[in-house]
Design goal:
Elements: E1 6-15, E2 21-27, E3 35-38, E4 41-43, H1 50-61, E5 73-79, E6 90-99, H2 111-116, E7 119-125, H3 127-132, E8 138-140, H4 144-154, E9 161-163
C-alpha cells in the first residue's frame, strides 16, 4: 500500500532539431548519492497544475517559455521508494514533450540557486550517447535510451507511457 506522501513533479523532454534531448546533471555525491542526468523540471507546488509547475521550472532552470498549445503528455513515472525521494514515500513525475531548436540553457535562477538545486551542468544527448552511458552516472528514468528511442520511433503515444525507476 502506498501513502499520500509522494513527491509530484513535472518534467520536459526537450528535443532539438537533431533529436537530441536536453538533460541536467544533478550531482548528489556530497550526500552520498549518484550523479543523475534528468530532464529539466521539478516539484509541483501546492495549488499548481502540472503544466503551471513545468512552465515555472523551465523559466527558472533553462530560460524556456512554454507558450502556445499545451505540450503532449508522453510519460508517467511512478516510483514507490523512500530512498529515491528523501522525505517522501516516492515520486510521481509527468513528462511533457517539447521540440525546440538547440539553445544554451540559462534560466532566471542565479548560479547559487542552481547549485542549491544540485544542478551542475547541462548537455544535449543523442539516444546512442545515452545508451553508451556516462561512466558511473545514472539516467532518469534508468531506461531513458529505450523510452526515448520508442518515442522518437513511434511518435506521441495516445496515452502517457507508464514507467518506474
Amino acid at each position: 500500500m502506498t501513502s499520500n506522501r509522494m513527491r509530484r513533479g513535472a518534467r520536459a523532454i526537450i528535443l532539438d532539431q537533431d533529436d537530441r534531448v536536453l538533460l541536467c546533471r544533478i550531482d548528489l555525491t556530497r550526500d552520498g548519492g549518484p550523479v543523475v542526468w534528468a530532464a529539466p523540471g521539478g516539484g509541483v507546488e501546492p495549488g499548481e497544475t502540472d503544466l503551471q509547475a513545468l512552465a515555472r521550472e523551465l523559466e527558472e532552470e533553462v530560460g524556456l517559455s512554454l507558450g502556445g498549445d499545451p505540450p503532449p503528455h508522453v510519460w508517467h513515472q511512478s516510483v514507490a521508494d523512500p530512498q529515491y525521494a528523501p522525505g517522501y514515500d516516492g515520486v510521481v513525475n509527468e513528462y511533457f514533450l517539447l521540440r525546440r531548436p538547440g539553445f544554451a540553457p540559462r534560466g532566471t535562477l542565479s548560479d547559487e540557486q542552481i547549485a542549491a538545486e544540485n544542478i551542475s551542468g547541462w548537455r544535449w544527448w543523442s539516444v546512442a550517447e545515452i545508451a553508451e552511458g556516462n561512466g558511473d552516472d545514472q539516467f532518469s528514468p534508468r531506461d531513458l535510451a529505450g523510452v526515448l528511442g520508442a518515442l522518437l520511433a513511434g511518435g506521441v503515444p495516445r496515452e502517457p507511457v507508464r514507467m518506474g525507476l
